[in-house]
Amino acid sequence: MLIGLRRKFIFVANMKTASSAIETVLKPLAEIVITDSEFGKHLPFSIIEQRFSWIFEYVPQVDFFIFGVIREPIDFIVSLYNFHSRADFELRPRLYTGAIGFDAFLSNWCADNCDQIEPQHWKFLDRDGHIAPNFIVSYQRLTKGLTYVANRIDAPALRRMPMINVSNELLSRHDLTAYQRSWIAEMFADDYRFLERFCDRLLTPAEQQGWRNHMRAVA
Description:
The chain is α/β, with parallel strands linked by helices. It contains nine helices and five strands, in the order E-E-H-E-H-E-H-H-E-H-H-H-H-H. The chain has one domain: Rossmann fold (3-Layer(aba) Sandwich). The protein has a five-stranded mixed beta sheet, sandwiched between helices.
């Protein structure tokens, strides 16, 4: 999570979406930097706006360029599984996935670590249920999206972003069964709707406020 007061940007860090690499590039431009998970790296915007409400007394929220990255749900879950198979998680058996199959991951690990698999779009909602970011990049269009961000906040280094915190390649989406894919699709149905309607373009204020109405319509 980064807040640039002079550059007037807020980066909302989603999990497994190149957030570490983005933070490495942008933290020299930010006055508030939280890059450790234990201290709130992946705070949802609803908590950011509460915890740092004093900021908006100096810079109105409407003046900030707020952005984040969201990932296709199957790729997101597979990356989460692969990431936690790394040897450094062996000392944290609750999080370690290197010794379990993907079915056990879905049925047991996800139940024990439900905070890790919350719908991604929740991170981008404010306390009123509206979309906070002006711009949400889909991970599959990361290069194009971050080029737009780089131009918008004058951060050219973002166009040459390094690879950091890369997951193991234990499993790919093509290894999943039909049941496993359908489990993920059902769990993250709202993320799919969010990806389809609100990503990869600058959102208008009306669109940002439209998510709550959209959810009412599909309820």
